[in-house]
Amino acid sequence: MAAPGKVAAFRLPPLPTIGEIIRLFRLKAQKQLSQNFLLDLRLTDKIVKQAGELKNAHVCEVGPGPGGITRSILSAGVEQLLLIEKDARFIPGLQMLSEAAPGKVHIVHGDILTYKMEKAFPKHLKKNWEDEPPNIHIIGNLPFSVSTPLIIKWLENVSKRDGPFIYGRTQMTLTFQKEVGERLTANPGGKQRSRLSIMAQHLCTVENCFVIPGQAFVPKPEVDVAVVHFTPLVQPKIQQPFELVEKVVQSVFQFRRKYCFRGIETLFPESGRLKRTEQLMMTANVDPTLRPFQLSMSQFRNLCNAYRKMCDEDPSLFVFNYREELRQKKITRSLPESPGQPEQT
Ligand code: SAM
Predict the structure, then answer these.
(1) ipTM exceeding 0.85, yes/no
(2) Ligand 1: distance of its center to the CA of 61 in Å?
């Protein structure tokens, strides 16, 4: 990636500025779609730099919009760039960029939440999971309403080694609301330590690269923005299925401010709840009076392993749903006496 003022690895021919493209194609940002554009190419260069060396890389940019980050990616000398954009209004401006970099850009008018990434890149780029990451990168500045569900979906893909991770440990550089960036990287005891911290950090090295102040975007969002880089780990820190880890972590954080046993209890049906909670905490060697945000990764690993053991012994346990139990209890309480029951006198 060339620093501003230096010769870029790949030089785009003269093009209208991003501001001119926005005016030319009347690309008014739609507030309801949380569209906030980055027009400062020094900032888009800085985001793209976080992805690492992109010379000859295959990159997928999600939500390119008017194409600021797209220009920085192309300037980094990539081999191929796949653009996935949901809003049709941006396609003509992206085509203009594509014509300036012949043969390099492939534009998809589609939704990243449903796009099949398994076939997005050439097969020969595949690497073994244990090897260095493939020369494939995902980069995107998406609306926050999309980036959070998307990273959860991609973390599940990391765990199952499918989706974009069928190619190996594909790296991602994505933007989030600043507080979400803090949650993704929070350490034990940290104010932002949450479900997202455990789910991300047990599967990836997560780096909160830098914060972009809201005023750098047009229009200005209410919040600041964090640029976060993810590299999937060779060995997940918790070696259990994604669904199991998610269930344990979600239960623990259900009562964030209470002792952790309060959330862990919700893994078990009412009958035998206390006994089984004590058994789980003892096997996992976790102090029940710790708060959820104080638990370390190895304590979460022990809890997941101990819960897995209990589920193997009693397979009905994993499908137990605490909320459903509460719902059923509520219904039973509000039902009139059923005909088969003895009348109360
Ligand atoms: N990347 C551009 C930039 O930094 O200036 C635009 C950023 S804007 C916050 C988000 C972009 O993502 C918009 O262009 C929007 O249309 C697009 N987008 C929103 N949801 C999407 C989805 N589900 N799939 C693909 N693109 C999406």
Answers:
(1) yes
(2) 10
